[in-house]
């Protein structure tokens, strides 16, 4: 939920990312900016460490051969 101005919210964005990485060691966060404005991004990818670990530990390996 957005409270306050967008500029105020965006200033907290990097703190949120830092907290994700601190509290979920192994979490991956990738951000693609638009290159023109520091306060704008185009895409964000977040993969929590618990999701990554669950996928690796519980999914059966798959080998495929394309003939």
Structure at a glance:
With 67 residues, the protein is an alpha+beta fold. The chain has helices at 6-23, 49-58; strands at residues 28-33, 41-47.
Overview of this structure, please?
- This protein is α+β, with helices and mostly antiparallel strands.
- Helices cover 42% and strands 19% of the residues.
- It is built from 2 helices and 2 strands, in the order αββα.
- It has a two-stranded antiparallel ribbon with strand order 1-2.
- A hairpin with a 7-residue loop joins strand 1 and strand 2.
- The mean pLDDT is 82.
* Helix content percent band: 40-55%
Range of strand content: 15-25%
Give the termini separation: 51 Å
Rounded to the nearest angstrom, the radius of gyration is: 17 Å
* Backbone shape: elongated
Mean pLDDT: 82
What's the assembly state of these chains? single chain
Quickly give the structural class. alpha+beta
Question: Counting H and I runs of at least 4 residues, what is the number of helices?
Answer: 2
What topology, given as strand order, has the largest sheet? Answer: 1-2
Largest sheet: 2 strands, antiparallel
Q: Please write the string of helix (H) and strand (E) elements.
A: HEEH
Total E-strand runs? 2
User: Any low-confidence stretches, pLDDT <50, length ≥5?
Assistant: none
């Amino acid at each position: 939920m957005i409270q306050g101005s967008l500029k105020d919210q965006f200033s907290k964005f990097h703190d949120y990312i830092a907290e994700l990485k601190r509290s979920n060691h192994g979490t991956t966060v990738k951000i693609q900016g638009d290159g023109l404005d520091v306060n704008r991004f185009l895409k964000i990818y977040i993969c929590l460490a618990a999701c990554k670990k669950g996928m690796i530990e519980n999914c059966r390996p798959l080998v495929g051969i394309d003939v």
